[in-house]
Amino acid sequence: MINQEELIKELDFRAVKSSGPGGQHVNKTASKVELYFNIASSSVLTEIQKERLQNTFSTRITKDNILILQNGNSRSQHKNKSAVINQFLEMIKTGTKAPKVRKKTKPGKMAKLKRLRAKKIQAEKKQSRKNPLK
C-alpha cells in the first residue's frame, strides 16, 4: 500500500490565473492549481509502480517524467488544491494496480454440441445442393 502522506510531500504546486467562474475576480487572482509530480525521482513508489504509471498515463506525462494535473473549477485556490490532490491520489490508486490475470477456459459440452449440430446442418444443406448426376 502506498503511503499517501509521503506521496503528497513529493508534490509541487503552482497557482496560475484561471479562466472560468469568478467574473472580474478571475483576472486578479491565481486560483487555478497545477500539480507536478516527478515519477522518476519518487522514493515512495517502487520501480514496477513507476512503470505502470508511465504506461497508464503516458499522455499526461512530459518528456522529463513529470505528471501534470490541473484544477480550476472553483473560485477558491484551496478547494482547487484539495480537488487536484484527490484527483492525483485516485489516479495513483488506479494506475498502480496490477492487471488481472486472465484465466483460460475451455468451451463447455453444450457449446461443443451446438457447434457440431450447426456444422452437420450446414453440411447437409451443401450436400442437398449438389448435382446428383455427378
Contiguous uncertain segments of 5+ residues: none
Query: Given the structure, what is the number of helices?
Result: 4
| β-strand amount | 5-15%
Q: Describe the biggest sheet?
A: 3 strands, antiparallel
Global structural class: alpha+beta
**H-E string:** HEEHEHH
CATH class of the domain at 4-95: Alpha Beta
CATH fold-level assignment of the domain at 4-95: Double Stranded RNA Binding Domain
Strand runs, count:
3
Oligomer: single chain
Cα distance spanning the termini: 74 Å
The CATH architecture of the domain at 4-95: 2-Layer Sandwich
Supply Rg.
28 Å
InterPro entries: Pep_chain_release_fac_I
Biased composition (Basic residues): 99-120
Protein name: Aminoacyl-tRNA hydrolase
Organism: Zunongwangia profunda
What does this entry show, briefly?
The protein has a domain at 4-95: Double Stranded RNA Binding Domain (2-Layer Sandwich).
What this model shows, in words?
- 42% of the residues lie in helices and 13% in strands.
- It has 134 residues and is α+β, with helices and mostly antiparallel strands.
- The chain has a domain at 4-95: Double Stranded RNA Binding Domain (2-Layer Sandwich), CATH 3.30.160.
- The chain has a 3-stranded antiparallel β-sheet with strand order 1-2-3, covered by helices on one side.
- The model has no long low-confidence stretch (mean pLDDT 88).
- GO terms for molecular function: peptidyl-tRNA hydrolase activity; ribosome binding; translation release factor activity.
- This is Aminoacyl-tRNA hydrolase.
- Keywords: Hydrolase.
- Residues 99-120 have a biased composition (Basic residues).
- It comes from Zunongwangia profunda.
